[in-house]
UniProtKB/TrEMBL annotation:
Residues 11-337 form the Apiosidase-like catalytic domain. This is Apiosidase-like catalytic domain-containing protein. Gene3D superfamilies: Glycosidases. It comes from the Bacteria. It comes from Coprobacillus cateniformis.
Length: 426
């Protein structure tokens, strides 16, 4: 059945659908078919149900021995956007057919920002700027190739939206696909830490994506909850997803020494989910999105300057991918389909701890990155059920609730890492 949206939920086969995506931007250009089968089978076992793929070649994909290009090349190495390479799209179609055999939903990016004038990426690498009058034929080819799979069309990729000419490109692509494929869900993938979406574009979207991104500076770590808070306040009523939290083992952006590890990506996910972006989450691994193999180049000098990734054969086994799958299992186990931020009831002097509850307030989730006693301006009975899940091991503890002078306390846990408190009223 086609994926649909009802209020803040994705729906499939009449049931809420938790959007658990893996980022595989370079699939159509870099992955041989045998490896594609292995990748799909592995991610399916981990619980993933959506793949985010760039239709056109990813600008910072790793080097490859494959030779899939969407347009005839000119002498300067750029694309002749008047001459579509049908073989490329037939190959991409075959990749999608295989993915659907494994029951994945496809989230396909129409125009990554480097192909569109006046974006931050196009300003750096303008060689393959798509002429405006070639957008029509390209979108026609996209519809002809991919709409049969009922994909989510992600109109933009990693883009800023400051310039009118940029917005014109994306509005045109959106309108053409809406006319050609009205049954397909649309959204935008915007650049890291971008909050404000132009009014002319926001109403075109069926759900919203934001990107907390890969920047490790202290002032940007809060984007995992600041962004969903802003979107919920200013663009309410539709599903909301962090479409690009920090990727596992990705080097910090801006050529800053260091990488994002399991704790970093868990924190990014749970802080986003409990701050309003509860319709799903996207995982990413350095080495997977660019499909890196030993001995090949990686564009660390372009974009945000990420350090060299490990090869995909290693990256596919990163433990954080399983932990994102655990998120879906926890939501399903506790029958959570919607969460509302209850941050105002938290009395601890930090915003790192995130608090949310179901609309009927019969269940509350609290993400605790560092151990401390939780204090709430909220009433739970000491007989209510408190489960504490160690997010590193999935071991569980029966938590203790007590009340004193109109304050509800949740005792410290016994684990070493970040945890999730789940309190259910009896």
């Amino acid at each position: 059945m086609t994926l649909t949206i009802h209020k803040k939920n994705f729906i499939k086969d009449g049931k809420p659908f938790f959007y658990l995506a893996d980022t595989c931007w370079s699939a159509f250009t870099n992955i041989p078919e045998n490896d594609w089968h292995y990748y799909l089978q592995y991610r399916k076992r981990q619980g993933y149900n959506v793949l985010q793929i760039n239709i056109l070649p990813q600008w910072d994909a790793s080097g490859t021995d494959l030779n899939y290009v969407p347009y005839v090349l000119k002498e300067d190495g750029g694309y002749d956007f008047t001459k579509i390479n049908d073989d490329y799209f037939q190959h991409a179609k075959r990749m999608c057919e295989i993915a659907k055999e494994y029951n994945f939903e496809l989230a396909l990016v129409a125009l990554w920002c480097n192909y569109v004038p006046k974006t931050w990426a196009n300003n750096m690498l303008p060689l393959n700027t798509m002429p405006f009058d070639c957008v029509d034929r390209y979108i026609e080819k996209v519809d002809e190739t991919f709409t049969q799979f009922n994909p989510i069309y992600i109109i933009s990729g990693d883009t800023d939206l400051n310039e009118e000419i940029t917005r014109n490109y994306y509005n045109k692509a959106s309108d053409l696909l809406r006319e050609a494929a009205p049954q397909c869900i649309q959204t935008l993938h915007v650049r890291g830490r971008l909050m404000e979406i132009p009014e002319e574009m926001i109403n075109r979207m069926d759900f919203y994506m934001f990107q907390s991104g890969h920047n490790a500076k202290t002032e940007n770590l809060c984007m995992t909850y600041r962004l969903p808070e802003y979107f919920v306040e200013n663009y309410p009523g539709k599903p909301l997803i962090n479409s690009e939290p920090c990727y596992e083992q990705m080097g910090s952006s801006g050529r800053i020494y260091g990488r994002h590890h399991r704790f970093n990506i868990r924190r990014a996910a749970w802080q986003s989910l409990l701050s309003g972006a509860c319709s799903g989450i996207t995982y990413g691994a350095a080495g997977i999105y660019s499909w890196h193999i030993y001995g090949k180049n990686f564009g660390s000098a372009i974009g945000e300057g990420f350090d060299m990734p490990n090869p995909w054969q290693q990256a596919i086994h990163y433990p954080g991918a399983w932990e994102y799958g655990d998120i879906k299992h926890i939501f399903n186990e506790f029958q959570v389909t919607e969460l509302i931020s209850k941050q105002k009831v938290l009395l601890n002097n930090t915003e790192e701890i995130r608090v949310a509850c179901t609309p009927d307030e019969k269940l509350m989730m609290i993400y605790l990155p560092e151990n401390t006693t939780i204090k709430l301006n909220y009433h739970f009975s000491e007989d209510d059920e408190c489960t504490i899940i160690d997010l590193n091991t999935l071991h569980r503890e029966c938590g203790r609730i007590y009340n004193h002078k109109d304050i509800c306390y949740l005792d410290m846990h016994v684990f070493e890492h970040d945890v999730l408190y789940i309190i259910r009223r009896k």
